[in-house]
Amino acid sequence: MPELPEVETIARQLNKRIKGKKIEKVEVHLVKLVKYSLEKFKKIVVGAEIKSVSRRAKLLIIELSSGYSLIIHLKLTGQLILNGEINKHTHLIYYFSDKSYLIHNDLRQFGFVKVIEKEKLEEYFEKEKFGPEPLDRKFTLSLFRKILDKRKNSKIKPLLMDPKFVAGIGNIYSDEILFHAIVLPIRIIKTLKSAEIKKIYQEIKRILKLAIEKKGSSNRDYFDAYGQKGNFVPLIKVYQRQGKLCFKCRTKIKRIKIGARSAHFCPKCQI
User: Fold this and answer.
1) Domain with 239 in it: what CATH number?
2) Where are the alpha helices (DSSP H) in 76-135?
3) β-pair partners for 40
4) For range 59-84, the mean pLDDT
C-alpha cells in the first residue's frame, strides 16, 4: 500500500498541479530517504522545473528539466501532499518558486527517493523486470493468457501481486478482483477455465479503473496529493472483512495465509 490506483491518483493530481513549477529549495530531514548523494541531489533538484509526473508500477516518476527523474516509492506509509501540514513524519519538502510546496511524509520510513538520469530510466525499469501495466492497451486478454500459461503451477492470488507478472496490484485489489471474478485466491492457474481467465482479466481492468475514479482506498495511511482520503473502501467486498458476512450470500468472509501474505474471500461465492 499504496497500490496502482493510489499512486496513479497522486501522479495525475501532481501532474496537474506542479507541472511547470520551479523548485526553489529542498529540505531533507531524513537522509536515508534519499538514495543518492545529498549534495548532488540538491544540485540536481534546486532550480529545476517539473516537466511531468507519471507512474510505473507502484513508483512515481517526477521528471525534471535538469535531465534527471526522481523515482519515488511510497511503500507502506508514504504520502506526497501538496501544501500539507508539516509534522514529525515529514522527511522531505520541495519548495516551489510560487510559494507552494510538496511534503513527503513516511511514518514507517520504508519508502525512498532515487535519482535516475533521463536516458537511463528505461534501463532502470528493465532491471526491475516489471510486468505489463494492467491498464495499458497492450495488456490484452491474449497477452494475459500467454503470461498465465508460463506460470501454470502458481496460485492466482500471489501471481496477481507479483510485479514481474503484472505491475501495480497488491493485497487490496487482488482480493477484490478475485471476489468479483468468483475465483478462489488459492486456485492453481492450470485449473482455471477459459471463461474464468477472461473474467479475471475483465475485473482487473474494471476494479482498477473504478478505484482510480474513487481516488484509491484509505483504509490506513493513504491520502491523495490534496491530503484527502480515497473513496473506494465503502465498495470493498472482502479485503480485511474476515468474520463479517458476505454481501451476496451472508456467509462469513475468511482470511488465510498464502506464503507471507494474506487473502480474503467468500468460501461460498468463490470457487
Assistant:
1) 1.10.8.50
2) 121-128
3) none
4) 98
Q: Which residue carries 500539507 as its cell?
A: 84
Amino acid of residue 145: R
Quickly count: other Cβ atoms within 10 Å of residue 63's Cβ. 20
Residues 5, 64: Cα–Cα separation, whole Å: 24
Give the three cell numbers for residue 80.
506526497
16 found inside a domain: yes
pLDDT, residue 177, reads: 98
Q: Which residues are catalytic, by number? A: 2-3, 58, 261
Q: pTM higher than 0.90, yes or no? A: yes
Closest CA to 72 of 104, 47, 45, 43: 104
Cell numbers linked to 247: 454481501
Q: What is the pLDDT of residues 44-59, one digit of tens each?
A: 999 999 999 999 999 9
Q: What is the pLDDT of residue 219?
A: 85
Q: Taking a C-beta distance cutoff of 8 angstroms, is the pair 127, 114 a contact? A: no
What is the rounded CA–CA span in Å between residue 234 and residue 269? 20
Tell me the CA end-to-end span of the chain in Å, nearest whole number: 27
187 and 260 both lie in a single domain = yes
pLDDT tens, 99-147? 999 999 999 999 999 999 999 999 999 999 999 999 999 999 999 999 9
Measure the CA angle with vertex 141, ends 139 and 142; round to 5°: 95
Cell of 173: 485489489
Please tell me the distance from the alpha carbon of residue 185 to that of residue 204, in angstroms, as a whole number.
14
- Give the domain extent around 91: 4-128
